[in-house]
Amino acid sequence: MARWLVLAALLAFPLVVTLPFPRHIMIIIFLYATLAQAWNLLAGYCGQISLGHAVFFGTGAYTSSVLVRDLALSPWLGMVAGALVAVALSQVIGYPVFRLHGHYFAIATIAVGEIVHIVALNWDYLGAARGLYLPIKRPDSFVNLQFHQSKAGYYYIALGLLLLALAVTRHLERSRAGYYFRAVREDPSAAASLGVPVTRYKQWAMAWSAALTALGGTFYAQYVLFIDPESVFALSLSILICLVAVLGGVGTLWGPLLGAAVLVPLSEGTRVWLGGTGKAIDLLIYGALIVIISVVQPAGVVGLVRRWRARAA
Amino acid sequence: GPMLAQIFATFGLAVFLRSAAQALFGVDFHLVKNPLVHGRVEVAGVFIGVPQLVASAGALLAFAFLYWFTTRTETGLALQATAQDRQAAALMGIDTNRMFALGWGLGAACVGAAGALLTTFFYVFPDVGGSFALLAYVAVALGGFGNVPATLAGGVAVGVVEVLGGLLIDPTLKYVVVFALYLAVVLWRPQGLFGRF
Question: Model's pTM, two decimal places?
């Protein structure tokens, strides 16, 4: 019941709030919640801590943008193409790196991410370090995925992406694959001895995760209308994606959304109130809050909510 | 799990300290004007900067100390035991929380020493540690976790490959070569060159 009320409130939000800034905050919350949920599928449910998810985000952003530039294709088709390219890439990356465990796996994903990042910085076809500007299309249209008059269009598309990510996670969570993911996370050797094809299911989790992340990448490119390797392939983006999921609660359906709902207003809020000083006071507070939250509540916001509920009951 | 919470607590700490440095010292690049060591020496036709030589010597000294400490002292052995099996170590009467604090402190001290040695021939700015931290992580994993000489080997390998890659292939691609080396090594040996776990 509560979740339908929240959904109704979210659907009604742009009708009530017309100021661009609150809408922007909500769009960024939805985008990061989608990315964190995609990461959560692989890391939270299947236990494979990837620190290179920017690869798939950038793949989605660059694929659709290049198709818009060269073929004047609708970004929606570019979005599908980006997801497919990201899935293909994820399988090529996954096959070798899924042999690694723990820190060795995490660093391997960083290594792959940084290789892709540096290659993109030097690849002229992709605009190299200069990046790509998307051609402005007027008037606003759903087909071109560009809205200049009002952010409402972006708002509903971002909300749609989030709902898709939640639906995919919910479906996988309750399917055989979801149980296999968790078995692999808890004890890969035990899962293998019970007949779970471990590598195949890691690849499956990676494919879904990459596809959803790439959708977010295309959305970002259409929202900002400029992409460059520093904004879509950077290691800091990969870390931010998992930070959102970890603060919310890994391996849970609602964790990524709660994490984004806390972290995005926190970072945007401290930036707006204190960012103008040039003294990084906003980041000072932001960093301190991250430390406090990780130490006080290692299970994330979801853990906090569960504790409140247990106390209320 | 707790491993993730740890990673992010340290990430938050990094953001905090970097911003604190920016708030206190500004974003400008600083350089030590009159370092204690300067100049260069010629060894078999190759010129080497004295600051670099002193820094290498300092780093090797730190390695020697760490190796002696972790393998020859009772506290060092307790540290290793805690790393291998926390519960078993606790049952042997080792205060594992103190060992974690000690490991964290020793690590911070070594990185601090490295940072101080670096200032004689490198700029100082709030984000100076960023690129080094990532390469240090790669160097440790390349050698194998929990092994001091292996880390030295990993560090030397990363440094040599970085410089040779920049010289022979393309300076902009030197880190591609470093990361590719890491991938090649761990795909061949998933626990790093000399790692046991």
Answer: 0.89
* pLDDT for res A312: 79
Mean pLDDT over B137-154 rounds to: 88
Q: How far is A103 from chain B (nearest CA, A)?
A: 8
So what's the ipTM on this one?
A: 0.84
Q: What is the mean pLDDT of chain B?
A: 88
* Cβ contact, residue pair A280, B186, below 8 Å: no
Tell me which residues of chain A, numbers 149 to 188, contact chain B at a CB-CB cutoff of 8 Å.
none
Distances (CA, A) of A275 to A286, A289, B25: 11, 16, 17
Cβ atoms of B67 and B110 closer than 8 Å: no
Query: Rounded distance, CA A158 to CA A140, Å?
Result: 16
pLDDT at B197 over 60: no
Q: Could you give the CA distance from residue B127 to residue A35 in angstroms, rounded to a whole number?
A: 26
What DSSP string describes B141-163?
HHH-TT-HHHHHHHHHHHHHHHH
Are residues A152 and A14 in contact, defined by beta-carbon separation less than 8 angstroms? yes
d(C-alpha B116, C-alpha A97), whole Å: 36
* Cα dihedral A96→A252→B100→A105 (10° resolution): 10
Q: A287 vs B12: CB contact, 8 Å cut-off?
A: yes
Specify whether the CB–CB gap between B192 and B185 falls below 8 A: yes
Contacts of A247 in chain B (CB under 8 A): 8
List the structure tokens of B144.
């194998």
The answer to whether A45 touches A251, Cβ cutoff 8 Å, is: yes
Grouped pLDDT means (10 residues each) for chain A, 313 residues: 87 89 93 96 92 95 94 92 97 92 89 94 90 86 85 93 96 94 92 91 96 97 94 91 88 92 86 74 82 80 84 78
The answer for residues whose C-beta is within 8 angstroms of residue B52's C-beta and 6 or more apart is B121
Helix (H) or strand (E) holding A142: none
